[in-house]
Amino acid sequence: MSANEDQEMELEALRSIYEGDESFRELSPVSFQYRIGENGDPKAFLIEISWTETYPQTPPIISMNAFFNNTISSAVKQSILAKLQEAVEVNLGTAMTYTLFEYAKDNKEQFMENHQPVNSTIPISSIISVETPNTAPSSKKKEKKEHLSKAQKRKLADKTDHKGELPRGWNWVDVVKVFEQNWL
């Protein structure tokens, strides 16, 4: 079988296996993502597998560069990728995307045993102290209200009812006029 036929068969199998699975996402017919772990789990991570033109005879491209993985240290990411590459070498020449996803699911705890969440965000208190200038509160400018002319106020009052709300259907399009313009 050619590489394209193998890829088509594997694609069909992946679609049927992961149908309805919220963790699986097909980015393109040759690129897939799978979330290992539940939403909100600090040890959850996302694996992206992309097939090359000659896959499965050549290894797929495995990536963990998704934004979802920002809290995982690069050392842990490299460790997971190294273990997945070992699995790739064992399965080279066969359809392996499902195998790799399942291998990652089965070994999630082992992969993440050295995981210490990386806090890539800046604490809010430091943002506030950095961005807030030391100025006296009396120097604040008052916001100006929008001033309307008598004619603008009258026009606005004519459009609204006594509660200040626009009447039902004020922005409806006259269906008859639209049909006359389009069909005649």
Automatic annotation (TrEMBL):
It holds the Pfam family RWD. InterPro entries: RWD_dom, RWDD4, UBQ-conjugating_enzyme/RWD. CDD domains: RWD-RWDD4. Residues 145-163 have a biased composition (Basic and acidic residues). Residues 132-163 are annotated as: Disordered. Residues 9-111 form the RWD domain. This is RWD domain containing 4. It comes from Ailuropoda melanoleuca (Giant panda). The gene is RWDD4.
